[in-house]
Amino acid sequence: MLAARPYRDRFRRTLGVGRGQRLVLLNSTWSSQSLLGDGDDDGDDSLPALLPRLTSELPADEYRVAAVLHPNIWHGHGPGQVRAWLDRARRSGLALIDPLEDWRQALVAADLVIGDHGSVTYYAAALGTPVLLGAAPLESLDPDAPIADFVRTAPRLDTRSPLRGQVDTLIEDHTPRPGPPRFTSSVPGEAAARLRRLFYELMGAPEPPRPALLVPLPLPAPEPARRTAPLRVLTRLRAGAEVAVTRYADPGREPAGAGEAHLAVHEDTRDPGQLDLADVIFRDGSPDDARLGPPGRWTAEVLARHPHCALAAYVTGPASCVVRTRDGSRLRLTAGAEADADPAAYASAAHAWLAAGRTRAALLADGLTVRTGSTAHHVVITAEADDAVTGNGTRQVPASPAADRSTAHADGADAPRAGRRSPRTGS
Q1: Does the pTM exceed 0.85?
Q2: CA separation (Å) from 408 to 72, 309, 357, 358, 416?
Q3: For residues 324 and 341, what is the distance between their CA atoms, to the nearest angstrom?
Q4: What is each CA distance from 63 to 12, 21, 234, 353, in whole angstroms?
Q5: Angle formed at CA 256 by CA 250 and CA 257, multiple of 5 degrees
Q6: Would you give the DSSP letter of residue 188?
């Protein structure tokens, strides 16, 4: 892992961690007192309950949540049961890490680890990564072992308090502790040579003259965030052509914060009823996927099928999407240099802009700056010719409600849902 640290940014990009995002990695060992087990006596900090809270309380575009579970958890409970326990969190964007091949890369990439008394948590501390203990059973540890001292003194996760503040405070105030790296290896960087020498001595065989070399950690398969749970989106128009976007996946309550609220729903949502309530409906796929038709056709079909939806967005890749508004305008949103947010967030920003009565012409002229947390993403917006035709070759016309949702606010009619004030803040 030490040898792989220069490639940390590559591992982060593989996990879909963009600029300004923080990767929170949860780890559980194999034990009834582990993070996956009961933890404390009341069981409030068990992993299946904690993960959905993290994926819903942490803004989706500012944090990436991943989990690595001990191989015996998969073997003992079975993959089907494990995935069922974590299903809600996975639909909210959780990355489930391969516990045999990719856990080390995820550990190198992490900004914070929430763990227990297992070795992976201790390795995180040895790497200098901030650690919060979600379970800490001292009775199962040798009191003289280094990890016992670590468990006694490491900060604890308070599951009865909001999670974001605990995560941010520990990351920002963290000072690496000297004990874990010292007790993990007294000769960092020399493990390969020393272990090979020992093994050959034990076999009574001469050691090869060539250097002892490590197999580099491979780059894992890409694991982009895919959120099919409904997203509650708060937006604020800032100076110039800039929109601040904060998205929460499947929140248990109305998110706190100033801004106009709207609902964005993936077409593959588990709850189809949410599509009839959505202001923005989106999906991701190849632009030449014959099952869906070209993006222009798909967006037209969505607006025709869901008359209360104001904007449909087809995410064609990690840097672009095609959107259609209720008045039939078709736009392509393309990430500019250094922009690397989820294109569905760009679609929500465009919706907020139009719902506030701002013009399409301004978007085409200047593009849009989408701000997620403290990170700005410039998006280039271009108009596209309409190709929304049905299977029999006739042009598909989106069903239009009584008032055009993209202009109703400016005309003084009932504002679209995205233009309504947040019921929590009244702002």
Answers
A1: yes
A2: 57, 14, 8, 11, 7
A3: 20
A4: 12, 5, 16, 24
A5: 120
A6: T
Identify the burial level of 239 via C-beta atoms within 10 angstroms of its C-beta, where 0-12 means exposed, 13-18 middle and 19 or more buried. Answer: exposed
Pick from 311, 377, 375, 392: nearest CA to 343: 377
Letter for the amino acid at 83? R
For residues 360 and 304, give the distance between their C-alpha atoms in angstroms, rounded to a whole number: 21
Cβ atoms of 249 and 92 within 8 Å: the answer is: yes
Q: Which residues of 363-392 are buried (b: 16+ CB within 10 A; e: fewer)?
A: beeebbbbbbbebbbbbbbeeeebebeeee
Token pair recorded at residue 252: 């248990």
DSSP calls for 336-379: -TT--S-HHHHHHHHHHHHHTT--HHHHHHH-EEEEETTEEEEE
pLDDT by residue for the chain (427 residues), tens only, comes to 998 999 999 999 999 999 999 999 999 998 888 888 854 555 444 788 899 999 999 999 999 999 999 999 999 999 999 999 999 999 999 999 999 999 999 999 999 999 999 899 999 999 999 999 998 888 878 888 888 888 899 999 998 999 999 999 999 999 988 888 888 888 888 989 999 999 999 999 999 999 999 899 999 999 999 999 999 999 999 998 999 999 999 998 888 877 899 999 999 999 999 999 999 999 999 999 999 989 999 999 999 999 999 999 999 999 999 999 999 999 999 999 999 999 999 999 999 999 999 999 999 999 999 999 999 999 999 999 876 554 444 444 444 443 344 333 333 333 334 444 443 333 3
- Token output for 261: 């609220």
